[in-house]
Amino acid sequence: MTTTASVVAFDQVSKAYDAVRAVDALTLTLRPGQTVALLGPNGAGKSTTLDLLLGLKKPDSGTVRLFGTSPRDAIVAGRVGAMLQSGGLMDEVTVAELVRLACDLHPKPYRPSEVLSRAGIEQIADRKVNKLSGGQAQRVRFALATAGDSDLIVLDEPTTGMDVTTRQAFWATMREQADQGRTVLFATHYLEEADAVADRVLVLHRGRLLADGTAAEIKAKAGARRISFDLAGTVDEAALRDLPFLTSLTVSGRTVRIQSTDADATVHALYGLGVYPRNLEVAGLGLEQAFVAITTAEEAKSK
């Protein structure tokens, strides 16, 4: 496989729709062999970023380069495979016929039987595409994205509609692709997937890159820890809200869950209230909580 210093390079890329800036001076570089998760709330600019990367939209300013050339040239050369939410599948053809067509069109095709097997769709190969369930259609889209030997695989919400077993098999296949030196970039709302699969996480918000690092680094960036415990008797929620360094508090019956930017000081103050917690646990934030903390802090700054 051909190597290059960068697979994807965004340099000060911006894209606006009327008054809405979907992508705002975005600069980032992806390297060979990385599995990269693209996260962000609705309207963060994820889909526009992928559209710019694939040459489906042109930036208002800045440059997008794939393998040192334009997105169009990289795609024509067969270096990019994509699985997008937008765009339908051809009706009234079988899955096998559609996969065979994708292989015929790719400059470096795999055998159709190999593509069907990798996507786990051999059993529905003779089924008409318009008769597929949502999860089956997603697997067919994945097959089309991997019909040839591409160096970059771009996936937009790839596991939507898949059951748990199919999702696990899908990501096992994606890990194999990355292990072979390919770069995998995927946008997802399933943050547990990003935590388990990605070796790099990008957090977008209002078109800007808020965080870029491993899942562990993103969690650390949130700067908070989780504290949970049980209390006997009535819970004085007002007193708990006065604890120092508190960023959030939820009470479910006698179970209290807190997020704090200084867990040691918060727990010390908790005992100072004359409260004696049971089953006390202190842990780092999960990726989902860190994601919420980072984006919430950004929202607060913009007000």
TrEMBL record:
<keyword id="KW-0813">Transport</keyword>
<dbReference type="Pfam" id="PF00005">
    <property type="entry name" value="ABC_tran"/>
</dbReference>
<dbReference type="InterPro" id="IPR050763">
    <property type="entry name" value="ABC_transporter_ATP-binding"/>
</dbReference>
<keyword id="KW-0067">ATP-binding</keyword>
<dbReference type="GO" id="GO:0005524">
    <property type="term" value="F:ATP binding"/>
</dbReference>
<protein>
    <submittedName>
        <fullName>Daunorubicin/doxorubicin resistance ATP-binding protein DrrA</fullName>
        <ecNumber>3.6.3.-</ecNumber>
    </submittedName>
</protein>
<keyword id="KW-0378">Hydrolase</keyword>
<dbReference type="InterPro" id="IPR027417">
    <property type="entry name" value="P-loop_NTPase"/>
</dbReference>
<dbReference type="InterPro" id="IPR017871">
    <property type="entry name" value="ABC_transporter-like_CS"/>
</dbReference>
<dbReference type="InterPro" id="IPR003593">
    <property type="entry name" value="AAA+_ATPase"/>
</dbReference>
<dbReference type="InterPro" id="IPR003439">
    <property type="entry name" value="ABC_transporter-like_ATP-bd"/>
</dbReference>
<dbReference type="GO" id="GO:0005886">
    <property type="term" value="C:plasma membrane"/>
</dbReference>
<keyword id="KW-0547">Nucleotide-binding</keyword>
<dbReference type="GO" id="GO:0046677">
    <property type="term" value="P:response to antibiotic"/>
</dbReference>
<feature type="domain" description="ABC transporter">
    <location>
        <begin position="8"/>
        <end position="231"/>
    </location>
</feature>
<keyword id="KW-0046">Antibiotic resistance</keyword>
<dbReference type="GO" id="GO:0016887">
    <property type="term" value="F:ATP hydrolysis activity"/>
</dbReference>
